[in-house]
Write a structure and sequence with these properties.
heterodimer, A: alpha+beta, seven-stranded mixed β-sheet, four-stranded antiparallel β-sheet, disordered N terminus, B: mainly alpha
Chain lengths: 544, 323
């Protein structure tokens, strides 16, 4: 029969091609950056509904808009604020007036000049209810007045001092767009926002890709960029590939050059692949953590909260389920936040101490299923899990936490749900444990997550203080910190705030918000822009 | 009585079509109603979908604005009648999340899904025909092999098959792209994934009717006339074997539509399935409603079409239906 020979032919071709590929891989890469080429980026984050990050304001929008929109300031890899579209800034002594000097040689890609009026139009756009902004709206919340003092001078007057103003301005959700483009209707601006960035949005095929082409006249790189002038790549094809295994397969097969949301098993196996590299760029703001709802029983009792934290052993789960790609966090804040404090001693596992605490709190009887009870009521904890936000490894970790809590007598009821039901459980206070991501630049995120003001739901029902932590002393520290501009003093206040949160056993930190990029070795000069660790391809080039 | 029946086949057909269309409209209304209330029974607030979900802490003004804009400040029953009134004139509204008109958007996605499902149906038919014609009526080993293959194929879950095909044909052999690319090449893996289990289903059904057909006297007479074995199969037995396959195709199309959710997501292919998945997740009510209605409508049309084809291929069906 011919069948075996027919099969053999393609196999031998593949084998020899693999050998040839092995040979070419050993040649030296070009040392000098080359211009041209289209880079294919595959994202696993949701496809944005709107490419203008002022509208709504979530991470997927930040990921892509970093390619075509720019902010007033940026951060360098040390976490310091650096100039971008603004070159200089001064804060008045009372902290209520900020003057920004703007670059006077920059144009938007539709020809509109970048100036003080443009900045004014952008802040007004964020504050306009019609824009329906969430993240950006919060960031500029304290700005009361905007005045164009000169073409390149803009003055903000604030309702209260805002020590987080510069960090807020560094976020992609507060990036600056062409005022001419903003005047178009929202649907149009969502399809083709216009900025000053190194790339221009030229096409968007829904559920497929966004095409970004080089901005030939680009001249406004942030202060920490490697080169000046236009980007090296001709274009970026930004593809939406929701399935993690497919995304990795596409990277392996060379159909795409960079993927985000790489899963632990893929990161681990990519370590053995010579043609794939990894960039670990944790998101700023809060670490991934489990919040203990102190607003109702049984976690309104600090002894029960401490008992829960003493009863669970998180580390073996992280090590095994994440293949060594995630590191245990002992801080409420992301490891990239300079003001974050790591307090491992608070989170030691001690089942015996946990049992003693539960006995003391009155949960001293055990039912036939091995769970503790008090007055005939079982020590049950509901834990709604958003399957859209928690990856499979994290869901398995929650199962391990459930198992170790059971040994001490906690019944943890895991409730995997879709995103909207998950929000529903949160809004109606039907949870004892919850894990919710939150990304913001700077330690001021503590104020959003743990100030008692954040327990009052927004009219949508959402409140960020899911631990329902209500402590006047903490409130005062967080408010003061948000108004003090002296870096050393702020750091001290945030350290104090973190010790209050952690010592009250309101939170169980797990690890940084995972943000792993895998990319082909043919991509050079790719990095994550520090403010929110979104990718930037301004310096990138292809060496194939 | 017999004369009367025979003299009115046309009006009977028209009546049949009218009943089917009427039933279809009822199904569409029921689907729209169930979707409307089901989506509102989920705890939470559709405003989150409009604001982009996670962490949205919009101002009270922005939220009030949105409620008024989208009519969400009205009582539920008023919202229901307003929504039904709009649907009655094919006004699907604006997507909460995508901020685009729903109707044209869903139509472009429908096209992509139709290409995928129809191609899969054709491939599954060809596969089932080839498999059954090649192995039925032969010796016991061939028959057992054929029906075993069909059983196996029918049992394979889409997501597993998709992953397997990607690992084998993309990651290992580099023959095909693992992601959907424009043109026929990008269609190969998604179509294979959808067609493979369906081939098994269709094959099993056809095999049985083939076996019955072989017992019929006309086969014996054809053989007696000296017709070749393949001639018997293609010219005489096939028509009988195809009938249940045609009836099954309506159902098969529905299963392909639901399979499209998995396949479109895995192969990053645009389409109704993927649209539905993301819209349900964030509760984009107008999009979910439109996708459900368009899928239901397509399914209804395809079932009517397959029943019509059934009646053409085998006029006996009409008589049975008329009784």
């Amino acid at each position: 029969m011919n069948a075996p020979r027919i099969l053999f032919l393609p196999l031998s071709i593949v084998a020899s091609a693999a050998l040839l590929a092995g040979c070419t891989a050993t040649t030296e890469p070009a040392a000098e950056p080359v211009d041209g080429g289209t880079l294919v980026y595959a994202t696993g984050d949701a496809e944005p509904g709107c490419l203008d990050p002022h509208v709504g304001g979530n991470y997927p929008q930040g990921l892509i808009s970093t390619q075509y929109l720019e902010s007033l300031v940026s951060k360098n890899s040390d976490g310091e604020i650096i100039p971008w579209l603004a070159t200089d800034w001064t804060e008045s002594a009372d902290g209520l007036t900020w003057d920004f000097t703007l670059r006077d040689d920059v144009n938007f890609t539709d020809g509109t000049p970048f100036d003080a009026d443009a900045v004014k139009a952008n802040i007004e756009h964020l504050k306009d209810p019609e824009t329906a902004s969430s993240t950006g709206y919060l960031a500029v919340g304290k700005i009361d007045g905007i005045e164009a003092v000169a073409a390149n001078q803009v003055r903000f007057t604030l309702s209260a001092p805002d020590s987080a103003l510069l960090e807020s301005f560094s976020q992609p959700w507060v990036s600056i767009q062409s005022p001419t483009a903003l005047e178009r209707d929202q649907a149009t601006n969502c399809e083709s926002p216009v900025g000053t960035g190194p790339f221009i949005v030229t096409d968007w095929v829904k559920q497929q890709s966004v095409t970004l082409e080089r901005n030939q006249d680009y001249n406004s790189a942030p202060a920490d960029a490697e080169h000046t002038g236009a980007a090296r790549l001709d274009a970026i094809e930004w593809r939406f590939i929701p399935d993690a295994a497919t995304r990795y397969a596409a990277l392996q097969s060379g159909d795409v050059d960079v993927i985000d949301n790489a899963q632990p098993n893929n990161i681990s196996s990519a370590a053995d692949v010579a043609t794939i590299e990894e960039l670990d760029a944790p998101r700023p703001g809060a670490a991934n953590r489990i919040e203990l709802n102190s607003g109702k029983a049984p976690f309104d009792d600090i002894r029960v909260r401490e008992a829960f934290i003493r009863s669970v052993d998180v580390n073996p789960g992280i090590e095994s389920l994440f293949f060594g790609t995630a590191e245990r966090s002992y801080s409420v804040l992301s490891s990239v936040e300079p003001d974050g404090v790591s307090l491992p001693d608070v989170f030691t596992t001690d089942p015996e101490a946990a049992a003693a605490l539960l006995d003391e709190a009155g949960w001293d009887t055990i039912d036939s299923d091995g769970y503790r009870t008090k007055d005939g009521e079982r020590l049950s904890l509901t834990f709604p899990i958003s399957t859209n936000q928690s990856i499979p490894a994290e869901q398995s970790l929650f199962e391990q936490i459930q198992a170790s809590a059971k040994d001490v007598g906690f019944e943890v009821i895991l409730q995997p749900t879709d995103l909207s039901s998950w929000y529903g459980a949160l809004f109606t206070n039907e949870y004892n444990l919850v894990s919710a991501p939150y990304t913001k630049v700077g330690a001021d995120v503590l104020r959003i997550l743990y100030h008692s003001d954040s327990i009052i739901p927004a009219p949508s029902g959402y409140y960020a203080n899911l631990a329902q932590l209500s402590d006047p002393a903490l409130d005062e520290i967080l408010t003061t910190a948000s108004e003090v501009s002296d870096a050393a003093e702020r750091q001290e206040l945030y350290a104090e705030a973190q010790s209050i949160i952690v010592d009250g056993f309101y939170v169980l930190p797990l690890y940084d918000q995972q943000n792993h990029y895998l990319y082909s070795t043919s991509v050079e000069g790719f990095r994550a822009l520090p403010p929110v660790a979104a990718p930037t391809f301004y310096d990138a080039w292809l060496n194939n | 009585m017999v004369e009367q029946l025979a003299s009115r086949p046309r009006t009977r057909s028209l009546g049949w079509i009218a009943r089917r269309v009427g039933g279809g409209v009822f199904v569409l209304w029921a689907v729209a109603t169930v979707i409307f209330f089901a989506l509102r029974l989920i705890p939470g607030d559709p405003v989150d979908a409009i604001l982009g979900g996670p962490g949205s802490q919009a101002s009270a003004e922005a939220l009030a604005q949105i409620r008024t804009d989208y009519g969400l400040d009205q009582p539920l029953i008023v919202q229901y009648f307003l929504a039904m009134g709009k649907l009655a004139v094919a006004d699907f509204g604006t997507s909460y999340a995508l901020k685009v008109a729903v109707a044209p958007y869903v139509l472009t996605q429908l096209w992509s899904t139709l290409v995928l499902t129809l191609a899969s149906l054709v491939v599954a038919w060809l596969g089932a025909l080839a498999l059954t014609l090649a192995t039925s009526g032969r010796d016991r080993v061939a028959r057992a092999l054929g029906s075993g293959l069909e059983l196996l194929a029918a049992a394979v879950p889409h997501f597993w098959l998709a992953s397997l095909l990607i690992i084998l044909l993309s990651s290992t052999l580099h023959w095909l792209p693992p992601i959907s690319v424009p043109g026929p090449l990008g269609l190969v893996l998604p179509v294979l994934t959808l067609a493979f289990p369906l081939t098994g289903f269709l094959g099993q059904v056809m095999r049985e009717s083939l076996a019955n057909a072989y017992e019929q006297p006309f086969v014996l007479s054809a053989r007696a006339r000296g017709e070749s074995e393949w001639g018997v199969r293609l010219r005489h037995v096939l028509r009988h074997a195809a009938l249940p396959g045609i009836s099954l195709s309506g159902w098969a199309f529905g299963s392909l539509l639901s399979g499209a959710v998995v396949v479109e997501t895995i192969f990053a292919r645009p389409g109704l399935g993927r649209t539905l998945l993301s819209a349900v997740t964030i509760r984009d009510i107008p999009v979910v409603t439109a996708v459900a209605l368009v899928s239901a409508l397509t399914f209804i049309l395809v079932t009517i079409a397959t029943d019509l084809i059934d009646r053409i291929v085998d006029p006996r069906v009409t008589e049975v239906a008329a009784r």
